[in-house]
Design brief:
- The structure is a single chain.
- The longest helix has 22 residues, at about 120-140.
- The protein contains eight helices and ten strands.
- It is an alpha/beta fold.
- It is globular, with a radius of gyration of 18 Å.
- It has helices spanning about 40-50, 70-75, 95-100, 110-115, 120-140, 155-165, 185-200, 210-220; strands at about 5-10, 15-25, 30-35, 60, 65, 80, 170-175, 205-210, 220-225, 230-235.
């Protein structure tokens, strides 16, 4: 299993946001997580990605590593990437630089190289930029590479967030409501991109989404949460 949780728990005061959730996800699957508002979906994401610490007795394993209560940067280094409901972009940076920021865990040089090996840095930056341009082309944003992220439309920003998450070459990509606010045409475009991403990069995905068309047309299996508990799971 690529991702596994056992008795995953998180309480905020007297509210059990996640209550003893067991979850298993094999490689190369697209899993949907659905449930009403307040059911614990985003809390589950925050626990797995290290944004929240889980309560005692919880266990989270990713790609054979115990990541229970590991900080987000450690989880990211192992190959887990995620997006958030609220778009978090560097608004005053260009589109290409936003995507390149997602590559930071893979940068092959160190601080000392930047001081004494300038040509080496320039050569590697050129290679990275070419790779990121290919990724932007894949999601349809290559023509906007030098534009500031703040100038993009809402739909384009969602695609940029997706591209930045993929830039780090994750093994698992967790998407929190990727279709929120998109028009029906852009929702269809997003679904096509997700399927192409899975095939091109061998990604495993977990998708939280209220638009059930996205879930039904992309996910092979669905997990249902309600009041912090897993109440159903299956095709």
């Amino acid at each position: 299993m690529l991702l596994k949780t056992k008795k995953l728990m998180k309480a905020f005061g007297g509210l059990k946001a996640i209550n003893k959730v067991d979850f298993e996800l094999p490689k190369n699957e697209i899993r949907g997580i659905i449930g009403p508002n307040g059911s614990g979906k985003s809390t589950f994401f925050n626990l797995v990605s290290g944004v929240y610490d889980a309560d005692p007795g919880s266990y989270i394993e990713f790609d054979g590593h115990d990541i229970t209560n590991e900080p987000p940067h450690k989880v990211g280094e192992l190959g887990l990437a995620r997006t958030f409901q609220l778009l978090r972009l560097y608004q005053d940076m260009s589109v290409i630089n936003n995507v390149m920021s997602g590559y930071h865990t893979l940068v092959p040089y160190k601080f000392i190289d930047a001081v004494i090996g300038r040509k080496k840095i320039w050569d590697q930056e050129k290679v990275i930029k070419e790779e990121m341009m290919e990724l932007l082309s894949f999601v349809g944003l290559a023509d906007y590479a030098e534009m500031n992220a703040s100038e993009l439309s809402g739909g384009q920003r969602r695609l940029l967030v997706l591209a930045r998450a993929i830039a780090g070459k994750p093994k698992l990509l967790m998407l929190d409501e990727p279709a929120a606010g998109l028009s029906p045409v852009n929702v269809d475009n997003l679904m096509k991109i997700l399927m192409r991403l899975k095939e091109k990069y061998g990604l495993t995905l977990i998708i939280i989404e209220h638009i059930l068309k996205v879930v039904m047309d992309t996910c092979s299996k669905v997990t249902v949460l309600d009041h912090g508990e897993k109440i159903a799971e299956g095709t």
